[in-house]
Amino acid sequence: MKKFYLFTVLFLFTFFANAQIKVQGVPRNDIPGTISSNQLNTAVTTNISFSDIQYWVGSGTNEAAFVVQWNDSKNPDALVWGFRWNGNATGEDMLKAIAQADHRFFTLLYPGTQFGTAIGGLGFDLNGQNTNALYKNGNTTYPLYPVSGIVNTAAYDFDDYTAADAGDHWGSGWYNSYWSYWVKDPTDADFGYSGVGASSRVLQNGSWDVWNFNPGMNSFPVSSTLTPVSSYVASTNFTNGYFMVNEEWFGHTNGSVNFIDNNGQVNYRVYSNANNNHAFGATTQYGTIYGDKFYFVSKQAADGGDTQYTPGGRLVVANAQTMQKIAGFNNIGGGDGRSFVGVNENKGYIGASNGIFVFDIANLQVGNLIAGTGGGGQYAGQIGNMIRSSKYVFAVKQSAGILVIDPANDTLINTIPGAFHSIVQAKDGSIWAIQDQKVVNIHPTTFATTSYNIPTTKYLGSWGAWNAGSFSASSKQNVLYWINSINSFSSGTQIVKFDVTTKTFNENFAAIPGQTGTYKQIPYGAGLRVNPVSDELILNTTESGFGAHYQKNWIHTINISGTITNTKILNDYYWFPALAVFPDNTLPAVSNTFPSQVNVNSTSTIDLKTIVSDEDNLSSAIVKTVKSNSNPAAVSAVINANDELVLTPLASGTADIRISFNSNGKVIEKILTVNSTASTLATAEVKKIEFSIYPNPVTDILTIKTQEKILNVSVYDASGKLVNTQLNNSQINVSTLPNGMYILKAVTDKGVYQQKLIKK
């Protein structure tokens, strides 16, 4: 009897020690027998109930709990989420929904097996570093990044994966470790081991699912201590900090944008997070905020190698406050994307490899090519940076020079020849362009140029593989900055400062850090921009050496003394940062010195340059416009080339003049009441001696007579709207204008003249 009993015990031991169990539906006989006691059921009294769960994913009347237990000695260990749904749902549905919603949770899955999707690895960003990535077989050169929280594989190779961040929760395996699956439904008294996988697990209202990792094939009981996961909250405040637009990893991912907040937190891919894993186009090189919209420009519409993110096109328009997508455009006129500049509340210009195209901001439509801005070939006549002054748009065109465009009628009015790389506007309103070894001052209205040679260093051009370049201007000081270069292909190690007022160079203003050792820090993309509020320089660098070295990226903050005050180290990835962009939070402000009412009995001027400013934009670039005139028969109101409001009394009466101030797309308006109390006949007669127009009234051709050099001429209708600027040998063709009264304004080299004309 004792022998029989002993035989029975040995038989049962052998059976359990070699019993075949199922792991996610797959029969296994290699699981050690020591875990068999935990494979039937386990009585667990958890420390929480459904009411304690903090983070619920999904919506519906049914609820289930989802637990992941890593058993890795990192705390908190066993984390719990909640899942809500209607209709039917599986354990796989719950896992994927949580992985997509919670950007801290990431998974390794093998979909499409005969047993459904196999769960190979589960991880959690425990230290809040946003470093969710996996290395396969120790390959740190090409990390695998989860999309919607998932990295997919096509084999049971789960043992080959490790987490990029050793501080995260991570467990994966199949042969050396594995995930056991425990479930409990409302009618079950205890947790039971599930032999089926997540795809076959049918959830019930009140179900519990526990993924319990067995590292080294060692078993652990389901923990009685569960920690509710706090809700994942993506950054939605994009006002306090700055953006970094990224080219991203060509052949792998489309463009993206990160946000660095003032608390030092780097928020990665904020546009993709806000738009269900949508991205920009391929090689995103430019971004700018105008009004309440963010414009992202990419060279191509999509990166064909990106299987992770949905491409957005060559131009993507997003809400600057929320990052929500507004529109995307694959075609921006037939060329590749380069740049964007806002012109007024309703219009912008797209710079492309084949010219400048009008963009209808109000209706979100790409318009026509501006005549004269195209030509030169795809990579021989491309458009670079563009700026909007208070009067004109200045655009750099490869090989051709600086194009000057009148935004009132989208007309190319001048070309300043030369081989330029970039263009900016200084605090005092002067326009500056840069060449290989000189900076060139361009008068904002006459377009006359003056060159200043850079003493010893050069500027690195970027037409071959275009980027926006490091040439930057301060909005607080009258200075310019850029990064020097050794030659046309290699950047230097110094930031150069140029004083616009004194015309002096400091070629050693600040040093680029990280210049010791084999591999150096080198600027990438534009590399340098100036924060318009703090006046600090933002310098982005990567590591020399090509290949995997480009995963190393830094963002440095440099004060006005040239000292580095802060350094951010980005998570390892091939970001290829292109350009820093700063939020536009404030409206322009009009000084109390701007009158609400004036009396005029002769031509008077009000200097608008000195009465309007903007805390986070260049005040000299604010566009001033006469939006309306309630009584144009009494008073003419125009704004001249010097940003002066010119009031000319035409008859006795009162007029309300509405003035618009547009600072980078943010607009405020002021009303000026003008009382006209006297005739201006005597003044007009005096001016006719040196300036006159005839015939008046006119039917078709109006001639201007003056001994002075005419710089530009404008014709305004009775409401103050600009209707004509075309001057040909001192003559203007007005034949197409409707009959009525108009105001002609001419700017000469000696003054500004205004006269009333009648079209009949």
Explain this structure to me?
- With 760 residues, this protein is mostly beta strands.
- Among the domains are: 22-29 and 46-228, no CATH class; 589-676, Immunoglobulin-like (Sandwich); 692-759, Immunoglobulins (Immunoglobulin-like, Sandwich).
- Helix content is 6%, strand content 45%.
- The chain is built from four helices and 61 strands.
- A hairpin with a 4-residue loop joins strand 26 (355-360) and strand 27 (365-369).
- The chain starts with a helix and ends with a strand.
- The relative contact order is 0.07.
Query: Helix coverage percent of residues?
Result: under 10%
Radius of gyration (Å): 34 Å
The largest β sheet comes out as:
8 strands, mixed
Please count the beta strands (DSSP E, at least 2 residues each).
61
Class from secondary-structure proportions: mainly beta
- What's the rounded overall pLDDT mean? 90
Helix tally equals 4
- The general outline is elongated
Helix-strand blueprint:
Layout: H1 2-17, E1 21-23, E2 26-28, E3 41-42, E4 56-58, E5 62-69, E6 79-85, H2 91-101, E7 105-113, E8 116-124, E9 134-136, E10 150-152, E11 161-163, E12 169-172, E13 178-184, E14 191-193, E15 207-214, E16 227-228, E17 241-246, E18 256-261, E19 266-267, H3 270-274, E20 282-290, E21 293-300, E22 315-319, E23 325-329, E24 337-344, E25 347-352, E26 355-360, E27 365-369, E28 383-388, E29 393-397, E30 401-406, E31 411-417, E32 422-425, E33 431-434, E34 438-442, E35 449-453, E36 458-459, E37 472-473, E38 479-485, E39 491-499, E40 504-511, E41 521-530, E42 537-543, E43 553-558, E44 564-569, E45 577-581, E46 589-590, E47 597-600, E48 604-607, E49 612-613, E50 623-629, E51 635-639, E52 644-649, E53 653-663, E54 666-676, H4 681-690, E55 691-694, E56 701-706, E57 710-716, E58 722-724, E59 731-733, E60 740-748, E61 752-759
Parallel strand pairs: 4-6, 5-15, 6-16, 7-10, 47-54
Antiparallel strand pairs: 1-2, 3-14, 5-6, 7-8, 8-12, 9-11, 13-14, 13-15, 17-18, 17-45, 18-19, 20-21, 21-22, 22-23, 24-25, 25-26, 26-27, 28-29, 29-30, 30-31, 32-33, 33-34, 34-35, 36-38, 37-38, 38-39, 39-40, 41-42, 42-43, 43-44, 46-49, 48-52, 50-53, 51-52, 53-54, 55-56, 56-59, 57-58, 57-60, 60-61
